[in-house]
Design brief:
By secondary structure, the chain is mostly helical. The chain has a single domain, classed as Arc Repressor Mutant, subunit A (Orthogonal Bundle). It is globular and about 35 Å long. The chain binds ligand C2E (3 copies). The site of one ligand C2E has 6 residues, from helix 2.
């Protein structure tokens, strides 16, 4: 096991996401809304997503998973702890 503890989850801050301009965050917002709809999970302030979904989002944004993670941290949508979730890719 890692000395830093278990791999953290990728947790999207939905309130922050809703504040961002559509040009930037539109694709992520649609993706998150699709997951919420598939789960029937509509009332959360946050949404835990799969590592696989970050890979898919990276393709959509034409970035590496690491680059997209840095961008989402800059936007305030992911916690800096998320870096450790993506280092294991
Ligand atoms: P599925 O992938 O066949 O998963 C069926 C059910 O298994 C899910 O129902 C959930 O209860 C459980 N499950 C699967 N993987 C996980 C996991 O990593 N953690 C937890 N806590 N439970 C898990 P649920 O939530 O109603 O989702 C229904 C379907 O919606 C899923 O079927 C999948 O096709 C889609 N879905 C839901 N959330 C996600 C997501 O975050 N990413 C993707 N790619 N698909 C999702
Ligand atoms: P946690 O994973 O640290 O999540 C803390 C709280 O963040 C959750 O409290 C919930 O209010 C919110 N949260 C995190 N991810 C989501 C999400 O995808 N959708 C929504 N609507 N809210 C989310 P909650 O529900 O009382 O859960 C407390 C703890 O119970 C969680 O801490 C986790 O350790 C465990 N837990 C809850 N649901 C699951 C699950 O589906 N799978 C696993 N493995 N653990 C779960
Ligand atoms: P979690 O529920 O704590 O699950 C942690 C990891 O355990 C998942 O990481 C996945 O690798 C594995 N896992 C848990 N349940 C299943 C399952 O039913 N099938 C398979 N094949 N693997 C499973 P992952 O995929 O990165 O997901 C991270 C978090 O995203 C999950 O934490 C959960 O909070 C959320 N999540 C992912 N998929 C679903 C889903 O289909 N439904 C719901 N409600 N939550 C999901």
């Amino acid at each position: 096991p890692s000395p830093l503890g278990p791999t953290p989850k990728l947790v999207i801050d939905l309130e922050r996401l809703a504040q961002l301009p559509k040009e930037k965050a539109g694709a992520l917002a649609r993706y998150a809304a699709t997951i919420q709809s598939q789960r029937g999970d509509y009332n959360g302030k946050v949404l835990s997503i799969r590592q696989e979904d970050l890979r898919s989002l990276a393709v959509i944004y034409d970035k590496s998973p690491t680059e997209l993670t840095e961008e989402l941290i800059t936007w305030g949508v992911l916690d800096p702890e998320a870096r450790r979730a993506v280092d294991s890719f």
